[in-house]
């Protein structure tokens, strides 16, 4: 264990059994004799009071029962980095592999198993080959002797230091300064003090590409103060840090490709405007950030925003988005290809999840993946055609017309359906006759009259069948199994549209209904087995 002294202990992270805490007071607590440590526990259930004992306040706690006093000999102040590495990988001179710890480790691309390495020289050689090191939950609290890490582990590139006893960013810098080619650094779950003023830029993190600071209590201001020292950073993870407000990064984080702000309750959606000009940002994760709306005020409907120019992947699941206007706004992002938006109040506006999915696809033109599920061209076409029909009567009522000279839909309609004009350009404007066919549905006009053929079995005569458009492919196969006396599980279905001659579309998803594939009356279903 690291040595401690009364002055040194204040602010240090400690372990007591399995409980983590921070030392907030060192000194006497009358009427008892001797030195006590006043500790604020990470888990307030472990505490007894708020730092006030017998009417005297010795320290402050965030939680009214988050603190208590312990004797110094009960506190584990942790070990240095190299001791933890040797313990973790069974490379301490005086011990074999610890029971329950990893006995294998990856050196470059090779996995090496440690079996009875007796000579110190051999162990030293193995330490020198370590590339990827994890000392998670190993009570690391300090760097150790100067230059010892660089002498012993010269080839480290990736370090996982999560959930240790690191008290300050200074300690992280002291460790990293001895690792010449550090690319990945995970220091999540360490409650640390970060610099409150700008620090002199050094080359310690000059090659760092990935940095995880989840649950470290870092603020966005502190991130920006440290960021000049991260000139090559590509991925930054800042989940669960009570970050509420953002500031515009000035000449920092310009290389960033991924930013995770999950589980921080942001003040509002406008905070995003402050990080909207990171030129290379491709992935933004905003899960559970309390966002209720998204708006890009610099661009009108039908135009692309200058914000988030490179953003391809956006995650806004578990938020408070309730209006379709926020989904409309996402179509303004010039590079958006993938969206996750589960668990928003908006999702409750449609009972059928399939309809909801189709509406989102129709509203965001360049989307290729929605909620981790690929959008195939046939699905996009079906979604856009359905959207054009469903809102066709609203379009006519708002001043829309198939004749371009008379087509003057209201601003209100265009604000609600900004993609409608482009869908009319793509597929043609809906005509009144076409929309009249969309009268309130009865079972009769939900039925599709389809011709069923078996192209590889000419002796089997074509059959005409009326099927509900809501029938799933799986149920269609079950029906054909009975009708044609063939095993349903081995069937391969496709169809040829009466309007698009020669183009065959596979019915390849058993869980989808017929209308998903835009099958219409008079189309021909082909059956193979």
TrEMBL record:
Entry protein name: Tubulin-specific chaperone E
Main location: cytoplasm
Ubiquitin-like domain ranges (all copies): 448-527
Function noted in UniProt: Tubulin-folding protein; involved in the second step of the tubulin folding pathway and in the regulation of tubulin heterodimer dissociation. Required for correct organization of microtubule cytoskeleton and mitotic splindle, and maintenance of the neuronal microtubule network.
Pfam name, any one: LRR_9
Keywords of this entry: Acetylation, Chaperone, Cytoplasm, Cytoskeleton, Leucine-rich repeat, Phosphoprotein, Repeat
Keyword Electron transport in record: no
Domain CAP-Gly: 27-71
């Amino acid at each position: 264990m690291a040595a401690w002294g009364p002055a040194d202990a204040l602010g240090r992270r400690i372990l007591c059994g399995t409980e983590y805490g921070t030392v907030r007071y060192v000194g006497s607590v009358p009427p008892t004799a001797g030195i006590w440590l006043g500790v604020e526990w990470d888990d307030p259930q472990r505490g007894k009071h708020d730092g006030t004992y017998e009417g005297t306040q010795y320290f402050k706690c965030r939680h009214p029962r988050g603190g208590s006093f312990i004797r110094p000999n009960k506190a584990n102040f942790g070990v240095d980095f190299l001791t933890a590495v040797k313990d973790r990988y069974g490379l301490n001179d005086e011990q074999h592999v610890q029971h329950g710890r990893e006995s294998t480790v990856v050196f470059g691309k090779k996995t090496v198993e440690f079996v009875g390495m007796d000579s110190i020289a051999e162990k030293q050689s193995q330490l020198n080959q370590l590339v990827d090191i994890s000392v998670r939950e190993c009570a690391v609290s300090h760097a150790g002797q100067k230059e010892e890490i660089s002498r012993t582990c010269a080839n480290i590139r990736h370090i996982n230091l999560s959930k240790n006893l690191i008290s300050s960013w200074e300690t992280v810098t002291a460790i990293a300064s001895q690792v010449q080619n550090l690319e990945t650094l995970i220091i999540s779950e360490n409650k640390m003090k970060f610099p409150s003023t700008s620090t002199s830029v050094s080359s310690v993190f000059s090659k760092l590409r990935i940095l995880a600071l989840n649950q470290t209590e870092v603020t966005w201001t502190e991130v920006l103060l440290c960021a000049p020292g991260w000139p090559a950073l590509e991925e930054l993870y800042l989940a669960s840090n009570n970050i509420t407000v953002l500031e515009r990064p000035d000449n920092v984080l310009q290389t960033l490709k991924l930013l995770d702000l999950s589980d921080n309750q942001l003040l509002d959606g406008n905070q995003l405007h402050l990080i909207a000009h990171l030129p290379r940002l491709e992935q933004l994760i905003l899960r559970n950030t309390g966002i209720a709306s998204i708006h890009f005020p610099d661009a009108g409907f039908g135009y692309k925003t200058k914000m988030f120019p490179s953003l391809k992947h956006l995650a806004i699941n578990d938020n408070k988005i309730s209006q379709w206007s926020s989904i409309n706004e996402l179509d303004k992002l010039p590079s958006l290809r993938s969206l996750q938006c589960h668990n928003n109040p908006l999702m409750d506006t449609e009972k059928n999840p399939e309809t909801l999915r189709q509406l989102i696809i129709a509203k965001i033109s360049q989307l290729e993946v929605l909620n981790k599920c690929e959008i195939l061209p046939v699905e996009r076409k079906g979604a856009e055609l359905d959207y054009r029909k469903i809102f066709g009567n609203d379009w006519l009522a708002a001043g829309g017309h198939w004749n371009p000279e008379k087509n003057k839909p209201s601003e209100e309609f265009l604000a609600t359906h900004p993609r409608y004009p482009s869908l009319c350009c793509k597929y043609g404007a809906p005509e009144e006759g076409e929309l009249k066919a969309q009268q309130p549905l009865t079972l009769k006009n939900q039925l599709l009259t389809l011709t069923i053929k078996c192209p590889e079995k000419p002796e089997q005569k074509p059959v005409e069948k009326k099927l509900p458009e809501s029938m799933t492919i799986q149920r269609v196969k079950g029906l054909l199994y009975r009708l044609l006396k063939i095993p349903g599980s081995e069937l391969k279905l496709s169809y040829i549209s009466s309007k698009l001659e020669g183009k065959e579309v596979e019915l390849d998803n058993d869980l989808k209904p017929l209308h998903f594939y835009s099958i219409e009356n008079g189309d021909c279903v082909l059956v193979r087995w």
